[in-house]
Amino acid sequence: MSFLESPIQYVKGVGPKRATLLGRLNIRTVRDALFYLPYRYEDRRNLKKICDVIYGNLETVKGKVISMNMTELHPKQQRRLTIFELHISDGTGIIKAKWFNQAYMKNNFQKGQELVITGTVKPSYYGGLEIVNPEYEVIEEDSSFIHTSRIVPIYRATEGISARVLRGIMHNILTTCIDQIVDPLPEYIRLSYNLPGLSESIHNCHFPPGDADVHVFNSGISPYHRRLYFDEIFNLEIGVAKIKNGQIREKGISFNPEGRLVNELLKRLDFDLTVAQKRVFKEILEDMRKPFPMNRLIQGDVGCGKTIIALMAMLTAVESGYQTAMMAPTEILAEQHYINMHRLVEDLGLKICLLCSSQKEKPIEEIARGEIDIIIGTHAIIQEGIRFKKLGLIVIDEQHRFGVMQRSALRKKGKNPDVLVMTATPIPRTLAMTVYGDLDYSIIDELPPNRKPVVTRVFKEEQKQLIYRKIREEISKGRQVYVVYPVIEESENHDLKSAITGKERLEQIFPGLRIGLVHGKMKAQERESVMLAFKGGEIDILVSTTVIEVGVDVPNATLMLIVHAERFGLAQLHQLRGRVGRGGDQSFCYFLAYEPLSDEARRRLAVMEKSSDGFVIAEEDLNIRGPGEFFGTRQSGMPDLKIASIVRDVDLVDIARREAFKIIDADPELEGFPLLKNAVECFWKGKIDIFKTV
Ligand code: ADP
Ligand code: MG
User: Are the beta carbons of 45 and 210 closer than 8 angstroms?
Assistant: First the structure.
C-alpha cells in the first residue's frame, strides 16, 4: 500500500479527532485529500501599504504588532461579548485586526511580531481602519506563506475544521508526499494532448504558481485542473470501454426473420414511417441479426414516434420464435402501451399481456409456459418469480428512470437477450455514449410531417376566463383537453390547487361536459378504464396529475392546461406538453402560473414559450439544475465524477473516450499498463466487476 492510501489521521496536524471531521468531507485517505480541490481562490499577492488600502476591498498588508487589547462587554449578562484587537503598523499607517468571542486569539500573537493580514477593510467605529476576522500569518525566519501573500486556496470547510486549518493540512500533505505521486497516464497520451504532469497538477491546483492568473484558476480551467479532470474522465471511459468490449465477446441471439409481421403491421398503419424512423429501424435490425446481444439506445424528442419502432423490433423477435417484453417506468404508461398495441398485435394473431405489480391476477404461468408473445409492464417484469420460456428482446421505454444495474437484472431474465432502450432526454451524442456507456446509440431526429409546434402561453389567475373560453372552443370542435395539477389532493402542508378539487370546480364551470380523473393513487383498473374512455373520445376533459407525463398518446387531445405551471421543472413541462400536438391539428399548451413567481420559474416558462426544441430546453435545464439531476446520472450506475463534469469538460470526454477505447481494444486487461489498471480499479471500486477475468 502506498502512502497515498494511508489514513488521513496520520498526516501531521490531523489526528483522530480531525480525521473524523474530515470524514464528513469524504476525506479518509491521503489520496482523498489530494483530490479535494479548493472551490475558489483568493488573490492575496498584492501587498499594499496601509496608507493605500481602500475601504470595502479585500486587501493584504504587512506590519508589526504595536499593541494588543482585550475588551469585555456586558460582563455580567448572558450575552457576553469579548473583543480582541491587534494594532498593526507598517510606518505608513495603522490598521486594526479584530476578533469577536475568540479570546484565545491572544495566545497567537506577541507585541513586536511581524504579521501579514488579509481581509475586507472597513472603517472602524472609533475612526481608522479595521479588518474583522482577518486571515493572518506570522512571519518567522523560514516562513513559507500559506495563508497570505499568494493566491490562496479556499476549501469548503466543515464544522470543527476551519478553512485555515484545512489549508495547513493540505500544505503538509503536499510537502510530504508530492514526490510519491506516480503518474498512471500513459506518457504518449499526456504528450499528445499537452497535459502537465500529475504531481505538478495536483500541487498547482492547491497552491497555484506565483505568476498564475487567479481568474483562470477560479473558473477551474487552468491546465492543471484540466489534467485532473481528464484523469477522472479517462478512468470512467476505460471502464465503459471494458464493459462494451465484454459485451461484444458475449454470445447472443441472431434473429433472422423474413419480416412478415413487420410488413403486416406497416400495412395497417395510416401513416408512412419518417426517414429517420426507417434508418433507426435498419440499425436495430442489423444489431438483431448479429450473433452477440444488442444494446442500443434510441433517442428521440417527444412525439417523434419511438413506440412504433419498438413494436417493429418486438415483432421481429416474435417472428423468430422468441418472447419479448417492454418495460415502462409507470403503470399508467405500461397500460397506455398495452391499450395502444393490443389490437394491432392481436390482429396479427399474437398474444399480448400486461404485467404490473398492482394486478391481482398476473399471467405468470402463461408467460413461463411461453404462451404469451409480448409482455408489457413495469418493474414487475424483473421481479423474482417472473420467468420466461424464451425471452429474446427487452425494450425499456423512457430510460432515464432506469440504470445500468436494472438493465443487467433484466438481461438475466433470458439468455443474453437483445436490449433496446428508448429515451426522450435530448443529450448530445458524446454525453449519451458516456452516461449510457454500455449502449450503442441511434437518434430519431425528425418529427412526423405536418406537426405544428404547440402554441404555448402563460396566463395569470385573472385571465382564467380566457382559458375557459378556449377549453369550450376546442371541445366544441370535437377535440379533447388535458388539465394537469401538481398534487392529488388539497393539504395543510401546501396551498396548491389539486386534481380532485380541480375536477369538482371544472364540473361546476362546464356542467355539460364529460370530465374524467386519473392519478397515481387510483386502482390500476379504474385508471385503465378512464384512460380507455379518454382515448375512445368518451371523455372531454381529463383531469390528472403528472402520471400522464410520459408516453401517453391521444392524438385528438389538442389543449393542455397546466395548473401551477410555475411549480414544474423544465423537463417535466416539455414532457407534459409532448402529450398534445400529436395529430395534424394545431394544439395549445396553456400554463396557469400563480404569483409570486420566482425568477427561476419565470425563466423556465419563458423558455417553454419560446422553444419547442428538446435540445434547447435541455440546455437551459442543464444550466438551471446541473448535470447530475438532469441526466439522472445518480441512477445510471456509473461511478460519480468528483471534480470533472461531463458537460463542462465535454471536449475532454471526446478525447478520453477515443484513447480509452484504443487502449482497451489493443489490451483489454491493461496488462501493459499496471499503474493505469490500478487507478481505474480504484475509481470503479466495487461498482461493477469490470475487471473480473473469468
Ligand atoms: P414518442 O417518441 O414520444 O414515444 P410516440 O411513439 O408516442 O412518440 O408517437 C407519437 C404519435 O405519433 C403517435 O400517435 C404515433 O402513432 C404517431 N406517429 C408515429 N410515427 C409517425 C409517422 N411516421 N407519421 C405520422 N404519425 C406518426
Ligand atoms: Mg414514448
Answer: yes
